[in-house]
Every structure is written in structure tokens, then in C-alpha cells.
Amino acid sequence: MSSPETQTAGGPTRTDAFAKRLAKRYRAEKRFRAMGLGAILFSIAVLIFLLGNMLSNGVAGFQRAELTVPIDLAASGIVADEALLTSIDAVQRLEMQGLSAVVSAAAEAELGAEGAAQVDLDGWREVAAAIQSDPALLNGASEFDLATSTDLASGLAGEGSPEMQALAQQLSADGMLAKNWDWGFLTRSDATGPQKVGIWGALKGSMLTMIVTFLLAFPIGVLAALYLEEYAPKNRWTDFIEVSINNLAAVPSIIFGLLGLAVFLALFPNLRSAPLIGGMTLALMTMPVIVISGRNAIKAVPPSIRDGALAVGASPVQVVFHHVLPLALPGMLTGTIIGMARALGETAPLLLIGMRAFVATPPDGFTSPATVLPMQIFLWSDEIDRGFVERTSAAIIVLLLFLLLMNGLAIYLRNKFEKTW
Amino acid sequence: MTIVHETIQNNPDAMMRARDVSVYYGDKMAIDNVSIDISPDYVTAFIGPSGCGKSTFLRCFNRMNDTIPAAKVTGLIELEGEDIHGTSMDVVQLRARVGMVFQKPNPFPKTIYENIAYGPKIHGLGEKKADLDVIVERSLTRAGLWDEVKDRLEDSGTALSGGQQQRLCIARAIAVDPEVILMDEPASALDPIATAKIEELIDELSGRYAIVIVTHSMQQAARVSQRTAFFHLGRMVEYGPTSEIFTNPIEERTKDYITGRYG
């Protein structure tokens, strides 16, 4: 207490040394704030770069090069009544009437032999689909936008062989070739060429898989969390279970794929690639996350609420379902969002249960072969064809939007529960 | 061991009767052989320094100690002659008959109406909404809260002030029409005005319900109770009419506590 500072006028907090220390403290705080702000700005910059890059590529992925071909269907001699058009083999029956040849002839008349060769080989199928949805087209002449070959598409993009680039330039100068908004991308499924692919098959596969994952992981996870917190005695067994669940949450996802392969596919060998098996595998991965967050949410419910409910004569089950669960639900939903978002973006476990197959038709149920969005992105990114780069970006945008939608729904539900309680 | 004043006679019609009750937390004895009668004719106060076991003993009467895994209760506790640990008594039913108010106000995070109606609802006391309305109004009126909240029954119970919340909790306990109300330091978290209101309320409720109140405020015990039991280190040291305990304590430790020498 006899240091020189304390002996100067007015006590220890009124010395110069104290003022200096004070200034140093403020400087330290300023530095800390600047660093924090810097970290946030850096994260935002990275995010903007990522999203910007994705969007600029992805927008092109929602478009495709199309050739405009006028076809006089009335003069083609193709006839079709309602019965034919609604039958299962309508496309084949239109082909037998020579629709394919009609389309080729029209293309050749309009674009010349060189141009007609660059109409996608399956272009006539798009005409057939248009006729099916609007039979009145058969009574007149109309223009159809048909997908180009992959070569011409890359020619339009300024890549590929010089001949193709020249042809693309000439056709687009004549107003017959253009990049059009491709709504079909959202309704078609996987195909061999970037001009013909679509995301719907993978999107539907993801939806079906997520439904299975949620229906399994959420109730099982919540019930497990409730039992462990509310009923289970605290002994060595429950400690063991707790440690196991925590470890399960940290297991690399590909191990879950092996488990799915060894257990689920061994049990149901003919459900390879099915969303049901994929969902079950991902549910194994998601459940521990829900259990852990659920237990934390239950622990956060004040004991006084439990006591209050018990003291008016509520049975333990009533305490859980009338008081604990409603109060813990927002926290549980937060854990579910995290777990489901992780499951949605997962590819590794699904590789092993066959969901990386080439699936050209959207799954029509939980047991038919399917692929999922991240897997589709992975498959397309592996393709050699240049056109797949943009399609991959477009698929990423679809995946991000789906994620956003899913999380938005969960956050909406969470806030709703928080309000009423 | 326990000094019982001569003016206290064994009451054959006591609502609740505890005989040689001991409570253990694991190996540690928290309550040592306590016997007492609880009756609606008087308010009973448990006083004593912190950690003397008065709250633990109170929680025996509605078996709230069951929720603590390590706690073990021995001895006999009867509600109207029936053993509360016996097979004929269900713990849910017991807690409906022996209500409890806690130290910290703990309204449910629901509407005021729901807070009161919850108990009657789970016990099936109000079949129709109209019946529940009657119970809610009656309970809130008895708790002296009706005039303050009758226009805002749909507001959250947690939006009330601390004193109002505690009276809401008392109303919640009354709503299931119990025979006994246990109060565990019901005013210790409240300001003096809210405390005065709670004490007034206890006065009004006595006679209709058998009330036991745990308090570490000796003035409060003197104001609201007619019987006082002094606890120290897990033992009930002295039990008698409140007026005698405060004016003429027999035990040295009681005298020291009441005169403020410790506690």
C-alpha cells in the first residue's frame, strides 16, 4: 500500500498511471471490436463471392440453346384422337405415324442439312409431348423450340470446333438459334446430355428421402431424449447409452452408409437405391443430433415448472406432455433443423446404398430407384461435357433453395411454438 | 427430544398426522424422528435457520421428496387416517388433496386462465367450459387476485408481477380444492407490500384449509401462525402455540434463535 502512486494526491484511482492503464484498457477493447468486425466482414465477403459465383454460373444452367423450327403438323398427315393421346404408348404411336421423320424434314427445310443435323435426336419427343398436352396443335402450323446437340450448344457458348462456332453464329444471326429459359430443367430428370437433363428426379428423390428421415429420426429422437431425461435411472447403463449416442453423432457419415448396406440392404435386397433405405440410413445419422439437442432443451426447462405441475397432481406423463415437451420443442426443432440440413447435403452414406445410379425417371414412390440432389451434383460435376458445369451450378442453386425452404419451415414452426407458450 | 408445550394436546381429528418421520439423503439424515399434527383449525409455521430441514420435512406431506432419487422417508404420515405411502393412496390423488406453493413463484408459461384451469382439467373436476369458468373465478377471488386480472385472463401468467404471480400460484393450488396447503417460504422472493398481501391471504384461507408455512422470517411466523415448530439441525427442537414460543420459549436454542443470536 506504500507504492508511490497511492501516496500522490487523491487515492489510487486518480493517478497518471491509472489514467494510462485506463487508456490501455479502452485501446484493447477497440482492437477486439475491430477484429470481430473484420471477421464478420470476411465471412460476408466469402459468402457473397460463393453465392455470386454460383448464381452467375447457375443462371446459365437454367437456360439452354434451342433451335426454332416451324412445323406444319396439319399437312403432315398425323392424326390422333383423345384415346390415342391418353394411352400409355402415345409417344410410340405418334412415332409410328412418322412424327420423327416429320420433325427431321421440317428442320432440314428450315435450317439446311447442316443445321438439321444439330437438332437433338430426341427433339421429336418434345414435339410429341407438346401435342399430348395440346392436341389442337395438330390442326395447324406452329413453331417449336427444340434442344440443340451438345456440340452446337458449346459452339453457341464460343467453345468447341471452329466449324460449330461458325454454324452457331450463322444460325443465331438468322434468329433461329437462341439461349432460352429452360423450365423443363425443373421437370425433367437425369439424361445423357447436358441439353436434356433436369433436376426433378433428384429433387423428388431428396424430398422422399427427407420425409423418411424426418418421420424416423424426429419421433425416435424426441422419445429417446424424453425417456433418457425424464424416466431413465442414472446408472452405468444410462451413462453408457449417453456416451454411445454422443459418439454416434461424431461418427463419419460413410460409416452409416456401410451400416445401411450391411443391415438395411441385407434385409431388403431389392430396395437398392430406394429413398426408403436412403432415408433410414440418414435417419440413423440424424437421430443422435436430435437426441443430444433434445436432451439439452429438456434440461433447460426450469425444474420449478415440473414441481408446479406435480404439486397440482399431474402424473409424470402429464408433466412431460403438458409442460416439458411444449417448452422444450423449440430447442428440439433447432436440433432437428441442424440434423436435417446435414442429412440433406449428405452424399457419402448414399453412395454405398446405390443412390448414385443413373436414374432417368423420377421415383414414383419410396421404394423405386432414386437419386438425391447432392448426389446429382456430384454425378454432373464428374461429367466431361462442358455443358454440365452450368447445370451443376443450377442444381446447387436448387439444393440451396430447398434447404432454405426446409429451414424456413422449421424456423416458422419454432417461432409459432415459442409464441403460444 | 422434542419439547412440546403442554398446551398442545394430541388432536384426534387432525387432518394430517406425522409420526416419527425421518428423511435421509443417501446416508445423511436430514430429518430426525419428527412427529406433528396438522389441522385446519390453525396455521402451522416451521421456523429455523437455513439448512435445518424444515423445507425437506414440508415436502414429505405431499411426497414431493419422491422426485429426489436419493431421498428416503421413513415413519408414518397420515392424511385423514390414511397412510400416504400406503397402497390405498395414490400419489397423484395425494397431491390433489395436499396442495403446495413454492418459494419462487412458478406460474406455468400459459394464460392466467389456463394456469388455474389446468389442475381441475386434469382431474376432471370441470367437465364443461362453464364449470371451469366458475372454478377459475372462485379460485382467483379467494386468492384476492380476481379484481386485478379479470379483464386479462388470456394474458400470460408470467407477465404478472412477482406478488401477483405468487397469488396466482396460490389460486392454482386452491383450484383443485385441496384439504391442506403447504407453503414453502411463499413470500421470501417478494417485496414487503406483496408479502403483506400474501400474509393477509393466508389469514383468510386458514380455517377453510389446513395451512403449513415454512418461513425463515420470525416476524412472519408470529403474524400468520397459531402454532410454531422450531427446527434445528434436522430435529424439531420445540413445538407450541406461536404466542408461547415467541414470548416464553423453553429451549435455550429456541430462545437464541428468536432473539436473533444465530440463524
What does this entry show, briefly?
The complex is a heterodimer of chains A (421) and B (263). Chain A is mainly alpha-helical. Chain A has helices spanning 4-7, 16-61, 82-86, 90-96, 99-116, 123-133, 150-156, 162-173, 200-231, 236-250, 253-267, 275-299, 303-311, 316-344, 348-352, 373-381, 387-420; strands at 63-72, 141-147, 177-181.
Q: What does this protein structure show overall?
A:
The complex is a heterodimer of chains A (421) and B (263). By secondary structure, chain A is mainly alpha-helical. Chain A folds into three domains: 8-59; 64-181, no CATH class; 200-417, MetI-like (MetI-like fold, Orthogonal Bundle), CATH 1.10.3720. In chain A, 67% of the residues lie in helices and 5% in strands. In chain A, helix 5 packs across helix 6 and helix 16 runs antiparallel to helix 17. The radius of gyration of chain A is 31 Å and the shape is extended. The model of chain A has no long low-confidence stretch (mean pLDDT 87). With 263 residues, chain B is an alpha/beta fold. Chain B contains ten helices and eleven strands. Chain B has helices at 54-58, 91-97, 112-122, 129-142, 146-149, 162-175, 192-205, 218-224, 242-247, 252-258, and strands spanning 3-4, 16-25, 28-38, 43-47, 71-79, 82-83, 98-101, 180-184, 210-214, 227-232, 235-241. In chain B, the strands form two sheets. A seven-stranded mixed β-sheet of chain B has the order 1-11-10-4-9-8-7. A four-stranded antiparallel β-sheet of chain B has the order 3-2-5-6. In chain B, strand 5 and strand 6 form a beta hairpin. The longest helix of chain B is centred in the middle third of the chain and has 14 residues, at 129-142. The two termini of chain B are 21 Å apart. The A-B interface holds A 233-234, 302, 304-315, 318, 322-323, 327, 421 and B 62, 64, 67, 69, 92-96, 99-100, 102, 104, 106-110, 118-119, 122-123, 169, 172-173, 175-176.
